[in-house]
Amino acid sequence: MANKIGRILIGIVIVVAVFVVIWLVLPGQYKNPILATYQSKTNDNYDDLVGTIQKSLVLKNKKHTYEDMMLSATGNPSWTIEELAVDDNGDGSYWVYADGYKTTVSFENEENSDGMITFTNAHVRLAFNVTKEGKDIKIGNKVIEPDKQIGPDHIEVATATYNSSTDASYYQAVLDALCGD
After folding, report:
1. How many Cα atoms are found within 13 Å in the side-chain-facing hemisphere of 87?
2. What does the DSSP assignment read for 84-133?
3. Is 47 helix (H, G, I), strand (E, B) or coil?
4. What is the SS3 assignment for 83?
5. Element (DSSP H or E) covering residue 153
6. Cα–Cα distance, 156 to 94 (Å, whole number)
7. What would the pLDDT profile of 140-178 be if each residue is shown by its tens digit?
8. pTM across the whole model
């Protein structure tokens, strides 16, 4: 009897280990949509945070919301959140990530007037650092409202990272390229 219980426990450990290894090596284009689905069902703040950002307009663009941009410009778009410092009521600081895959981003190279910077079949990640205070979702001190323009903290395209403060023109060029403008 003890021998059978031992085999069952070893089998369970092996199955769990296999799932953990698969999860760790699974590419983001498959892992992030699964994680987003899980978060949407288990985190009470997911819909507030993600929904507010999805309905906001892309910075310096009055035609595209972030949701529309990600759906049209990328493959397998997914929205995930990361809690940084959150209290029991869900108020606090979060990262909200918009990930998209298999996209081409091309824009002018400022350092070489004849050249373009092009990323093909790239992973794009928009990272929004937000704070939730009651019903208000804020970036910095500014409350995010649907149909108002906001910008992510930084944008990652393949191996490049563009910050809103230090790489402003490339940062905006990536947003414009994703919008198709």
Report:
1. 7
2. EEE-TTS-EEEEEEEEEEEEEEEEE-SS-TT-EEEEEEEEEEEEEEEEEE
3. helix
4. strand
5. none
6. 18
7. 778 888 778 888 989 999 888 888 877 778 888 888 888
8. 0.83
Cα–Cα nearest to 165, from 151, 176, 175: 151
3-state secondary structure of 56: coil
Nearest to 56 by CA among 66, 41, 70: 66
Contacts of 29 (CB under 8 A, 6+ apart): 75, 76, 99, 101, 102, 123
pLDDT digits (tens, 9 = 90+) for 41-53: 988 888 888 888 9
Burial class (CB in 10 A: 0-12, 13-18, 19+), 72: middle
Output the CA torsion 89→67→39→140 (10° steps).
-30
> Which residues, given as ranges, of the chain have pLDDT below 70?
114, 181
Other Cβ atoms within 10 Å of 174 Cβ, number: 24
